[in-house]
Write the structure tokens for this entry.
Amino acid sequence: MRRISPGVPRTGGLVPARAVQIGRGLMIAGIASGWWTCVLPSVVGAEPVVMRFGQESATGGASAVVVSGAELIHLTQILPMGADGKLVGPGDIDAQMRQVAQNLVAGIELAGGEAARVLKLNIYVTEARVAEEIRQRFAEFDETAPRPAISFVVTPLPDPAAMLAVDAVIAGGDGTSRGSSDNLARAPVRRVGEASRLGGRIGPVAAILPVGPRVYISGQAEAGDGTVADATRQTLASLGRSLEFLGLKREDVVQVKAFLTPMTAVGEFEREVAAF
């Protein structure tokens, strides 16, 4: 599974309603700032509120997290890469967990967020045993600390030596520091940092969804000529048509998620995304 930043199961609301995967191709879904459809719409200019409910024994995370009145910071998929761009600790789950956590916190802070305000944490692992290691670490955390909703996905990763990767959604501010509340609903999507500096691969470290209505576009897939490159090209073109139909632009897109197979073709996928 490949995420580009700037979503799962019952604890969250970021994964599209349907997700289809095609052989040697991909499925793409997106989130955009716009005026057509919104889920639990925020009151523009209101004080941000975050509410957490229950705790899942299977993940150690909250059963549900509800937020209103806050910008939503979407982080790119973060791998256990050091500042030199090289993978840290091949075969060493502890070293990779530490590096991912370090990159995650740095990305959150770069985007103006706080680790205590993480709403949704998606953890991608190559094996179920890695997920169990991570769950055990969560069990050691302070029980009074705010917990995000957490999901685990077993999947190949863009770097075959990586054992885990994460992405996250974080509650930001109310956005009023950027202008009057009357203009917040028309605020542009902001993009922060370079993903490659904090364990990501392409695009920004984070994209920030402003307060107000938002559009969730369901999964789209085009087979193309059977290659990953053409499937990516055609699927992105389909996404572009959906945006046009909704009266939106590419600049309004905050997050795109792709289910890619085979993962060894991730370079082809990324080249097409960069050209989109």
